[in-house]
Amino acid sequence: MTDVAWRHFAWQVPDTWEMLLFSRDQESGQCVFADRYMHRLEFNWQRAERAPDFARMLADCRNSLTGEPAVTAVCDIEVAGWRGLAVSTAAGGSSRFGRYFAGERCLVELVFVWPERRDLSLEADVLASVRETPRDEAGRRHWRAFGLDVRVPEELALQSCRALPGRAEMVFRDAKGRREERFQRLGLVPQWLRGTVAEWLNAQIPAAVTNRSCGSETRGRHERALIRGDGAGAGVARLLGHRQPWQAAAWICPEDGRLYSWITIGRAGAAGHPGQLSCCAAAERTPP
Question: What is the largest CA-CA distance in the chain?
Fold first, then answer.
């Protein structure tokens, strides 16, 4: 099973299911997973100040589904503390579940699509894995998808996410646009890397970043290139011409052969801790 962490929730999906679509909106959104053949799972969220009337909600949903021509049966189900409906059709079926999480004040709905018969064991495993992800001791939130495993200061929101063959990138920024953190995971390194990791990292930093201090550190078998400097700020700070500190790190993980990089622009927030990027279980998160 593969671990996923998104929108302050964590859960597991089969290794053959990949995230196909995602939302950045904290109030309402979804993540959609598919295998190589079809859409398999929706993870939906909606912020709500209180738990809904589940009995009424399920009754409304049941009545709506019962009227669809393709539906042959609808029945109430409860699995691992989740209440929902199992829907049968001639082509297969689906099961949908809802649960309210008081900590996040959020209603979560999972919709499974079953091409043949319903897999009760897999369904229960996925539902049982769903949990809220509280702040860690440094006030960071956990995000994990597309091979990236990061912990980000809570005041930073997901600004963008790109997942392409051989490349995954997440960018987080605060509401005022004064601070930004960028995380990357790059594959096929021998095919494109020319020179050292330190040289590559230096080329990622704009020429306007001055007072550069380059260094390195070794943790186990992980050799990391490090850069510090001063340059244009992120977002609004850039437009106003404010200069901010830059920090960056990059390394090739000996476990999977991919190149990981982390860049932060701006000063640390109230907690004073930057984000963290983890490449494998054998390495500590970087930066410290």
Answer: 69
Q: Is-contact 220 282, C-beta < 8 A?
A: yes
- Residues 128-137: what's their mean pLDDT? 93
C-alpha to C-alpha distance for 269 and 174, rounded to whole angstroms: 10
Tokens of 64: 């709506």
List, in order of start, the domains of the chain with CATH numbers. Answer: 2-132 (3.40.1000.10), 140-278 (3.40.1000.10)
Dihedral, 120, 122, 129, 111 alpha carbons, nearest 10: -70
Q: Which of 253, 251, 262 is nearest to 282 (CA)?
A: 253
- What is the Cα–Cα distance from 264 to 246, expressed in whole angstroms? 6
Distance CA 132, CA 245 (A): 33
Whole-prediction pTM value? 0.89
Contact present, 132 and 8 (Cβ < 8 Å) = yes
Q: Can you tell me the distance from the alpha carbon of 75 to that of 144, in angstroms, rounded to the nearest whole number?
A: 34
List, for residues 174-202, the tens digit of each pLDDT value: 988 788 999 999 999 999 999 999 999 99
